[in-house]
Amino acid sequence: MALHYGIASKKYSLQKVIVKYDKISAAIGMIPISRRKVTNVIVMSFVLIWILSATSYIIVMESYPEMKRIFSFYLVCDNYIISIFISFLGALLIIAYAYGFPSMVAMMCGIFYYEFGEILSRFRVRLGNQNRIYSANKMLCELKIHRELYKLSYDLQEAMSLICFFLLCSQMANMYCLLSEFVLTKTEDLTTSQIIEFILLIVVIPPTLIGIIWCASRINAQHQKIHTAIHLLLDSYTNLCNHDANITTYLNRMKEKQFPVMSACGVLELTPKLLLGFFGSLFTYGLLFINLKR
């Protein structure tokens, strides 16, 4: 529910970010690259995982009557094939909502972060080309684009922050709960359904967390590269004999702007350190649970 609320509350902010994406991409002169194939492959991979998981549940369902009743929504059907089909749909719906929906949200967040990183990368290349011909008009154009990127970075942070916070919290809570359940349960008491759920979480959650944090940290890395490029431009220009005060002013104005670090509600900065912290804490809690089990 929290994730639903986060997306609904940021709907218009996301639309605003998309519109700005298009405007800045046109100003930079980026050639639109269709990543539909990659996106389709990722989506189909998730769907295949859901179908395989639902099929696995159906296979072991006969040994667990309560599970069968849950997946069939407590409907009584005399026809065995129809009963299996209803149970399969029930399992698929539960898996899609519990694990599929967060995965799709994670993919959406990753796409937003990745595309913004691409725009920043393109802008950094444009800045690098400015050291060949110093022109006040061209530098003013770069300043305007830099200003729009600066605004867009804050818009993106505002639009994605709450969604990422709820997503990361829900995914990590699932991991911790299942880890505690898996470790504290005796080996002989583990059910096949628990093993299937554990495998499903291991397959789905880590890639989504890694994808979001990698795409967001890529933005932070591009910010640093742009800042470095501006410093190099300013240094190389000041070494020239003939100076244009306007160009120096434009470069200084760009240098003064500090882009925000992508974060989840300002609580979790989306950097590789966060990823190491997540998996490090999982490992630590795993050892703790093992000691408690003994």
Q: What are the key terms here?
A:
2 strands, two-stranded antiparallel ribbon, elongated, 81% helix, 294 residues, transmembrane, mainly alpha
Spell out the blueprint of helices and strands.
Blueprint: H1 2-9, H2 11-28, H3 36-60, H4 65-71, H5 80-129, H6 136-184, H7 192-238, H8 245-256, E1 263-264, E2 268-269, H9 272-293
Helix pairs in contact: 1-6, 2-5, 2-6, 3-5, 3-7, 4-5, 5-6, 5-7, 6-7, 6-8, 6-9, 7-8
The count of β-strands is 2
Shape: elongated
Helix-strand sequence:
HHHHHHHHEEH
Q: Which percent range fits the helix content?
A: over 70%
What's the alpha carbon Rg, rounded to whole Å? 25 Å
Q: Which class of secondary structure composition applies to the elements? A: mainly alpha
Beta strand %:
under 5%
Report how far apart the termini are: 37 Å
- Classify the oligomer: single chain
Tally of helical runs: 9
Number of domains: 1
What's the rounded overall pLDDT mean? Answer: 78
Summarize the structure.
The protein has 294 residues and is an all-alpha fold. It has helices at 2-9, 11-28, 36-60, 65-71, 80-129, 136-184, 192-238, 245-256, 272-293; strands at residues 263-264, 268-269. A hairpin with a 3-residue loop joins strand 1 (263-264) and strand 2 (268-269).
